[in-house]
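Structure, all two chains, one model.
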Amino acid sequence: MRIALTGGATGIGASVLRKLAGQGHEVVVFDIAEPADHAQSWICTDISNPDAIDAALAQVEGRFDGLVNNAGLPPRDGLEEAILRVNFLGLRRFLDGMVGRLSDGASVVNVASRAGAAWRDSVDEIKGLMACDHATVAAFVAERGIDPVRAYNLSKEAVIALTLARTEAMVARGLRINSVSPAAVSTGILDDFTAAFGEKVARNIARAGRAGEADEVADVILFLLSPQSHWIKGQDIVIDGGMTAMAMSDALGFGDPA
Amino acid sequence: MRIALTGGATGIGASVLRKLAGQGHEVVVFDIAEPADHAQSWICTDISNPDAIDAALAQVEGRFDGLVNNAGLPPRDGLEEAILRVNFLGLRRFLDGMVGRLSDGASVVNVASRAGAAWRDSVDEIKGLMACDHATVAAFVAERGIDPVRAYNLSKEAVIALTLARTEAMVARGLRINSVSPAAVSTGILDDFTAAFGEKVARNIARAGRAGEADEVADVILFLLSPQSHWIKGQDIVIDGGMTAMAMSDALGFGDPA
């Protein structure tokens, strides 16, 4: 397969790159940083900038069998606008630019997050973000007083919602789209999440027994790129070692420990 | 791997059996009907009867690397009690009997259904069913006036809830449990669903382009049995060609067709 991957230099993206390359697939990486290894092709791309995205896409020829929209910024002070520009607006711009370059049957995988799990409670704000573009998002952030943690959560909520919103158009083109929602993954940005979400992260990790690994998320992304998953469309797959299920079971009082 | 499979004679179970056997795995099938092919071992088992389940389990020796709880009855007149006995109570009894026979790291996959998707709206009734056993379920059905369609939906809601409820205990034992929710699959019982759910089934199939295939569901079950999915725990994976995502996007007004 020939796969386009955003954010392939570090973390989950680097693991996806290594695994795809290891299976003999061709990967074109779009990242502002150069991948350490394994990339057959790297196109330096600032995903926060729509013109940079368009310019990067203009450099590639031929068709792709899959797209992994993985580039993202963590919740960190001062990044609120940049988070929305990269994690959602940039992702959408890149997706829109790639659709016409995807082969029949191609699979798109968006990297969301368990931080976006409560998206059903924020449908109006998600629609507000969906109505923004790179030119108007600064005003959106200012008006709503969005801080970096909210920006991160909202960006991932909107990725899950965009996956739903685009399913029908993708199916009509013979393509498919899904997302994955990892939680508490042991990468270079885990400290950002611990700082942003506090005790909750440590508690979830303790309950699952450990943090997740980037390779464990990458394995699921590879499955979603493969023909074995081809009837899964418009879904969000949570990869969290059971953290969500345990919390939901508690909250709902399913006291059936066996 | 050595896998235990309930309901391996027809439909999705027959496909799981064929695929596992084709990959060189050993499969022990527990079904009231004899599988046509591919079974190294068949133990005639009436999953509606707790004594029959216990007797069947007493016949097997050794450990298993996975369990697929697939046996189920469709919504059909007169079957309301039998549906709850097989699809939920029998599944739970079989699971409880198998837990001590599973190897470290083993994976359990419960076959739920998109018919159970609205489980959050029925938490009290699910808890009512969870409090039943085979001896008391007839009274539960009579008291609540449960018809075959409601019995089917409730049984699948309870399978999704049970998957959540058991996640922590399974993780504590070094095991994991997930469910799959297929919709409108082209098997021998698709007519039962069309009769039970009417126009909705035909509309969903038209929108997805076609009904699903048993092999497409089996591919996801095999993924959930494999090490590649090992950080996915307590999740329900919907396999429906996008039917759910399209309906949700409509309902929420995510008008972003691109």
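DSSP finds ten helices and seven strands in chain B.
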